[in-house]
Amino acid sequence: MNARAQILARIRGAVTGVPDVEVPRDYRGATGPGAGTAEPRLIDLLAERLRDYRAIVHVVPEAEIASVVREALARRAAARLVVPDGLPSAWLRPPEGEAVPYETVPYETVGDDPELSAGDLDRVDGVITGCAAAIAETGTIVLDAGPGQGRRALTLLPDYHLCVVRADQVVAGVPDAVAVLAAERPLTWISGPSATSDIELDRVEGVHGPRTLEVVIST
């Protein structure tokens, strides 16, 4: 028996017969009644905090998401983009009435079924996802591997992450996010592009995840 197995066996023995304890989850949130519809101040605060983290941020009406996405990808000259299952197709399709037909969108979309290898993800130009929630106070985007988000590797290996946040997903603080998130889901909390610094405080981006985070917040 290795050390891990010994430790787990001791824990199991210690809790055998112990009654379940209810853990209180009624944390005090900041939004109060009516949570679920982001006030303009929360969207403004989220955008401000994300920019503080050096993310690129756009706050646009929902009808303009596809246009902003296309312009963002054009600026990066992105040729291959990972698109998780369940991502709204309207976010990639040019708005109705524009002269650019859908089939001429200048990038290739790549699915994740079968799952892409680490090498495949390293070779794409980026990934576009939705999110499960966004926290205004901390400038944090939370993914839970739900529809339009994909597994965690999709947003950790590519160098560029383009994330679309709906207005109704913006909450005020961390307790408000915990209240709407499912604890059993694989949660990824993202506060700006991946970055680290050494003892001299020299900031290096892209070490543990995307070097560039671009966020489109719909109003």
Automatic annotation (TrEMBL):
It comes from the Bacteria. Residues 114-217 form the LUD domain. InterPro entries: FTHF_cligase-like_sf, LUD_dom, NagB/RpiA_transferase-like. SUPFAM superfamilies: NagB/RpiA/CoA transferase-like. Transmembrane segments: none annotated. Gene3D superfamilies: NagB/RpiA/CoA transferase-like. PANTHER family: LACTATE UTILIZATION PROTEIN C (PTHR43682:SF1). This is Lactate utilization protein C. The lineage of its organism: Bacteria, Bacillati, Actinomycetota, Actinomycetes, Streptosporangiales.
